[in-house]
Structures are given as C-alpha cells and as structure tokens.
Design brief:
Blueprint lengths: L2 H9 L1 H12 L5 H25 L4 H8 L1 H16 L7 H6 L2 H4 L3 H10 L8 H31 L1
Helix pairs in contact: 2-3, 3-4, 3-9, 4-9, 5-9, 8-9
C-alpha cells in the first residue's frame, strides 16, 4: 500500500475510534474507555503527525490535511446543532460529527466543564466546547508529532 493511501486511511482513525467509544461505552469498560483509550489516540495521532513530516509536505498543508476530518466534523456539528432545529436534524450526521472529538475522552470533558457557564450542568454549550477543545487538542498533538519527527529527520 502506498504511503499516501495509508495516510488517508489514518485520517479516519480518530473518527472510527470515537464512534467505537460512543457505542461501546458501558460501566464495565468505563475506566479503559475514559482514560486509556484517549492516551492511545493521542499517541497514535502524534505518530500520524510524524508520518506527515516524513512525506516532505510543508507544515501548514500537513496540519490542514491531517486534521481535515476533524475540521469538517466540527463544521457539520455546528451546522447540525446550531443552525438546524432539533426536529430537522440528521441523526447520522449529528452523531458522526461528534465522533472525532469523542476519542479524546474525559480529558476534554473535564476542561469543558470548567469553562461551562452553568456549574454542574452539561448542555449544548458544554458539548460545543467539547467539540472545539477536542479538535484543538488533536491539532496540537499532531503538530507536536509533526515537528518532533521533522527535527529528527534533519538530524
């Protein structure tokens, strides 16, 4: 399989893991899914950033392409939950649009709750914050992986 094709496949991994996270979440798997799975996801996303560095694509296009699924997911999420009424919402799009950030687990939820204006309440604004912070964190991890590997390649 070519390197470019494998990188394209890797772009979908956070969404696939996030989707599995959402459908497999049970009390029996809670510890694993909440804390260990996100560490695996961050490590994998760091590695994917490094693979983009090895492809000799400039940094900004690599970051955009590497996180394109997350960016599109956030746009679809904002469209479905801010612009479309609840009765007209496409449940498939609404669900899948949250999958990219779902792979970040409880780390993002804890941050979002701190930012939430209403304490002890998880509402639409908290979920929007979760989506935005999840994408930002994934971009940061990707950038660190990219530059870490880029510096290693130069040495």
């Amino acid at each position: 399989m070519s390197k470019k094709l494998s990188l394209i496949i890797f772009l979908f991994i956070p969404t696939i893991i996030g989707y599995l996270y959402n459908i497999l979440f049970t009390p029996a798997l809670a510890s694993f899914l909440l804390y260990i799975l996100p560490i695996f996801m961050f490590s994998l996303w760091f590695w994917v950033g490094g693979r983009f560095a090895q492809m000799n694509i400039k940094a900004f296009p690599s970051i955009l392409i590497g996180n394109s699924i997350g960016i599109v997911s956030l746009i679809v999420y904002l469209w479905q939950f801010s612009l479309v009424s609840e009765g007209h919402r496409n449940l498939t799009l609404a669900g899948l649009s949250q999958a990219f950030s779902a792979s970040t687990g409880m780390y993002i939820v804890r941050l979002a709750i701190l930012i939430q204006p209403e304490k002890n309440f998880v509402g639409h604004s908290t979920n929007t914050i979760i989506q935005i912070l999840g994408l930002i964190l994934m971009i940061i991890v990707f950038i660190i992986g990219y530059y870490f590997n880029k510096r290693k390649v130069r040495l």
